[in-house]
What does this fold into?
Amino acid sequence: MASQNQLPIAIPKDLPQMEEEINFSERAQWLRAAVLGANDGLVTIAALILGVGALKHDAQAIILAGFAGLFAGACSMAIGEFVSVYTQLDIERAQIKREKATMAGNGGAEEAEREALPNPWQAAAASAIAFSLGAVLPLLAAAFVEDHRVRQGVVVAATTAGLVGFGGVGAVLGRTKVVRSCVRVVVGGWMAMAITFGPIKLLGSSGFEM
It folds into this structure.
């Protein structure tokens, strides 16, 4: 009786792990594009707002420049991700054909490999949507502040909070260390904003006007 009761306990322990690995493999196809797009949108538009704000203090001009950057960046991210993933897809399809030629009769493995292939349309959509969502955060932060100095500080604070959030979400979904991921994303975002703001500020102090 005891041995019979142990069998159904041991079997289910392995099944969730197998399902979890399969789900993680499928999730990784769009997770990279979504996290990269969100971080890129957040940092790009925040750096654009800070850079334009270094020369022009007009809130309307800054917001218009931000929305122009949002649409251009979302399209650019989607096209770049589509081309990149489609190239990867072609390479993996060619690899499957070569393996099929050398290992005939293994239809089940071939079907599993086809299901695991990346989807370029899904990656492109995830990248564009995530870029737009990330870009909205600094735009909203800048839209409701009149004083340009306060606006710059609010944008930096909102962008930092967004970077921490995106870094944490990416770490949780990707099963990596949360603190390390957040620090890496925040430091990278600060560097991008500083590189954008610094040279444009120097141009403004030298007499250049937009």
Notes: The chain is about 90% helix and 0% strand. Confidence is low (pLDDT under 50) at residues 9-23. The CA atoms of residues 41 and 131 lie 4 Å apart.
